[in-house]
């Protein structure tokens, strides 16, 4: 028998060796997560922060901190947590209830966070740890009585089910859409003073059939609102007009606000040349709105 394993399992609380296989799996998963974050965020990081590795650096810093925290916690004798079992499970249950009854802070599209100053806590994640701790304590305490359904099974099913119901009841707007509504007024005399070729270069499309130009200018409206660069949105324009005023009502839908905001910043020239079309039209109004998912509307 390995002496070190006996030492790790002994009540003395001395630390045993690190499980190399488990440690390798944890490090591999963290590394995979960092790579996936970089792969999914490189375009937004380049457009918004002018640094393609912005999110990579931030996630790498968090991953390193997580490894240090994991190692530190692994040095703590888990038996010392036994007296804290009921306070911990009680605390996480209260936090879950608070997130359900309206104290939840929105993050990632769902109101599943609680704000404690600058710290944001996700109760459902802490509930996992609290539930595991309570189940281990309860099953160890009952020992032979776990063979009884009413003692060994029913209480654990009820507690687990209660926490699961709270998770399902947390407000989730992950399926919501962001709507951008703007009213633009055209400078019709200045636009009509341009010849057809100049209008097409400003727009980036042919005038008769709206075909995208192969040689469009970098300042064209099509180039400054390229969806492959800034993100894909659903957009429509509806013209309006009176004898004294002409323009368009623009509406854009997206799963998140960032692509819409990035396109507006691009049109204003914050990340390059100004959109040529903005020299002939100007926004009068504009606002973002959140469109709840259909299931949230049906439940209202």
Description:
With 300 residues, the protein is α+β, with helices and mostly antiparallel strands. The chain has 3 domains: 1-76, no CATH class; 79-172; 177-296, 2-Layer Sandwich (Alpha-Beta Plaits). Helix content is 51%, strand content 17%. It has 12 helices and 7 strands. The protein has helices at residues 3-9, 20-49, 54-74, 85-100, 123-142, 149-169, 188-192, 196-203, 221-224, 227-230, 258-268, 294-299, and strands at residues 105-107, 110-116, 119-121, 177-186, 234-241, 246-254, 281-291. A 4-stranded antiparallel β-sheet has the order 5-6-4-7, with no helix packed on it. β2 and β3 (119-121) form a beta hairpin. α2 (20-49) packs antiparallel against α3 and α5 (123-142) runs antiparallel to α6. The chain is elongated, with a radius of gyration of 29 Å. Mean pLDDT is 83; it is low at 1-13.
Give short descriptive properties of this protein:
300 residues; alpha+beta; Alpha-Beta Plaits; 4-stranded antiparallel β-sheet; 3-stranded antiparallel β-sheet; 12 helices; 51% helix; disordered N terminus
């Amino acid at each position: 028998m390995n002496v070190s394993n006996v030492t790790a399992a002994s009540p003395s609380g001395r630390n045993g060796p690190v499980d190399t296989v488990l440690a390798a799996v944890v490090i591999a998963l963290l590394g995979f997560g960092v790579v996936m974050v970089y792969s999914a965020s490189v375009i937004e990081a380049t457009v918004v922060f002018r640094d393609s590795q912005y999110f990579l650096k931030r996630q790498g810093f968090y991953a390193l901190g997580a490894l240090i925290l994991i190692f530190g916690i692994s040095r703590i004798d888990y038996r010392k947590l036994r007296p804290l079992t009921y306070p911990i499970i009680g605390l996480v249950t209260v936090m879950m209830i608070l997130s359900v009854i309206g104290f939840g802070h929105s993050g990632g599209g769902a109101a599943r966070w609680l704000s404690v100053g600058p710290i944001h806590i996700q109760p459902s994640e802490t509930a996992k740890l609290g539930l595991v701790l309570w189940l281990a304590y309860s099953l160890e305490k009952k020992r032979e009585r776990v063979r009884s359904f009413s003692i060994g099974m029913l209480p654990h099913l009820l507690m687990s089910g209660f926490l699961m119901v709270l998770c399902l009841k947390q407000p989730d707007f992950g399926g919501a859409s962001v709507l951008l509504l703007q009213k633009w007024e055209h400078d019709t005399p200045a636009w009509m003073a341009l010849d057809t070729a100049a209008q097409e270069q400003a727009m980036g499309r042919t005038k008769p059939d709206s075909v995208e130009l192969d040689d469009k200018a970098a300042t064209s409206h099509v180039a400054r609102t390229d969806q492959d660069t800034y993100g894909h949105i659903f957009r429509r324009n509806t013209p309006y007009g009176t004898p004294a005023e002409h323009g368009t009502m623009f509406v854009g839908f997206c799963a998140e606000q960032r692509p819409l905001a990035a396109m507006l910043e691009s049109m204003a020239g914050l990340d390059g040349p100004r959109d040529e079309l903005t020299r002939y039209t100007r926004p009068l109004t504009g606002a973002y709105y959140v469109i709840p998912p259909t299931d949230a509307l049906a439940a209202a």
